[in-house]
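Chapter review. Work through the record for Glycoside hydrolase family 15 protein before attempting the end-of-chapter questions.
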Amino acid sequence: MRIEDYALIGDMHTAALVARDGSVDWLCLPRFDSPACFAALLGEPGAGRWLLAPASGGPCSSRRYLDDTLVLESTWECDGGAVRILDFMPPRGQAPDVVRIVEGVRGRVGMRMELMLRFDYGRDEPWLRYEHGLFAAVAGPDAAWLRTPVPLCVDEDARRTTAEFTVGPGDRVPFVLTWQHSWLPRPDAIDAQESLAGAEGMWRDWISGCGYRGDDGAAVRGSLLTLKALTYAPTGGIVAAATTSLPEQIGGSRNWDYRYCWLRDASFTLQALMSAGYDAEARAWRDWLLRAVAGHPAALQIMYTVEGARRIPEWSVDWLPGYEGSSPVNVGNAASGQFQLDVYGETLDCLHLARQSGLAVVEEAWDLQRSIMDYLEGVWRRPDNGLWEMRGPRRQFVHSKILAWVAADRMVQAVEAFGLGGPVDRWRALRREIHDEVCAQGYDAGRGTFTQYYGSTGLDAALLLIPRLGFLPADDPRVAGTVDAIQRELVEDGFVLRYRPEHEGVDGLPGREGIFLACSFWLADALAMLGRRRPARDLFDRLLGLRNDVGLLSEEYDTARRRQIGNFPQAYSHVSVINTAAARAAP
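C-alpha cells for Glycoside hydrolase family 15 protein:
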C-alpha cells in the first residue's frame, strides 16, 4: 500500500492506520509510542494486521470521514451488491477499543475477516483461545479480546483468527477489539452502536468550537481533527506523527521514529490552536511544555515523550524489513540527545505567544524563561546540530542563531509589554549583538541571500521564516533575495526541499529525501508577506492537492514518484495548513 492509501482513526491516546483494502496495518497499544500489535505497515501481514473486507478482495470503491468526525466509512461496490465498513476508536474508557461495523447496503456480499495479532512490533505471537463466543489472545504483558456475533475460527498453527459471513441490506455486524494489560481483569464489553454514537458526538462537539471563518474551512477543520487525534489526552502533548520509520526516501535509511513531541513545533502548534479558537488545547500544550522542560536548562532536549519523559533511546527492530524494504526500522530517536540551539528560542517564543494571546499566566513560567535565557546567553555562540537534526558535524547554523535572537527579543518584549522583571538592557544588547553577527556572517552579499550556516554556499528552507519570526521585515531586500534564492536552488517541481543533503555532506547521512511539506507552506507564507499573493495562493492550492482522499498529509512528498513519503500523518504538515490558511484569512 502507498502511504496515502491509509486513513487514521484514534482515541487521543493512540492511533491506527486503516488501508484502502480494509486492513488495519498499524496500531500501538496502549499509547502512541507503545510497541505495535499490528506492524504490517513495516513488513508483511505476518507482522500483524486486522483485515475486514469483501471476500472478493481489492481496495474500497470510496471512503470518507463522516462529516467532521474521525469515523471512517469505506464502501465497496462488488459483484452482486455493496457493503460499507465503519472504523473508529471510541473515547477511551476502561481500556482501548477498536470498533469495526460492517453494514450491508445492497444485494448480498460475502465477507472475510482475518485477525493476526503480533505484539512487540510483530515479534510475539500470542496464545489464542476461543470460548463461548469470545476470542482471546495473550502474550507476556499484552492481552486482547475480540467480540462479535460472527462465528470465529482459530488457527493455532498460523496464530490467526478468521471468519466468513454474508451481509444483506440493513445488516449490521459489529467487531470490537479490546486491549488490556494481561494481569488485569478483562474490561467490560462495550456496545458497538452506542460507542459509534459516542464517537460521532465527541468529534462533532469538539469541531463545533472551531472559530475559523475564512476560505478553505473544510481543509482547516480536517487538519484540526488530525491534530486533535495526534494529541495525548492525559497530558496535552502532541506527537509529530502516529508512525515510526516511514522513509524519507523509498528504500533508503532515513527512517525515524516520530511518535514523540518536538519543542520546535511548539510555537507553530500553539499559533494554529489559538487561531482556530481552541484555548483549552493550547493551554494543555503550553502546560505540557512547561512540565517537560522544567529543570536545568542545560538538560533541555529537542523532544520528549507524550508524558514528558526525557529518555528516548534509539534501537533497530531488525526482524522487520521496513516499508517497501526501507531499513532500518527504528524505535526511539537518538536525536533527542543532540544540541539544537533553536529549541531555546522556540520554547521562549511559545511561552511569549501564550502570554500575548491571553492564556492564563503560570507564575513559574517567567522564572523558567529567565533561567533558560541565562543559560542561552552563555551558549548561543556554540555550533549545533540545527533544527533538521543533522547527524554530521555541528555547525554555526543561521536559523539556530536567528532563534537565539528570537529568545532575546521575546524576553525584551515581555518586559516592555507586560512589565515583567529582568535585565532588559542586557537582553537588548544581546539581541543587537546576535542580529549584527548573523547579518555579517550568515549573509552572502554577492548572491543576495542568507545561507544555511556561516561560510556556507548552501541554503536552508528555514530561512523563509526570517520575516515571520520578526528578524527582518518582509520589505527588507535581503528577505526578498533569500526567497528568490530558495526558489532557484531548493525548489523541485514547484515544492521546497529543506536543504540539499548532498551539499557539503551537511547531514552526514547517505541518500537524499523528498520535499518537506511544511517548507513549501513557509514559502507560500513568505510570498504572501512579500506581496506576491497570486503565486502564494497557487502554491497553497497545490499543497492542498497533495492530501489523500480523506485529507491527510505525510511529512514529505516524492516529486518523481508522485507519492507521499515520511511519517504519517504529520502534525507539522497539518499545523502548516491551519497557519497558512489563517494568515490568508487575516484582515
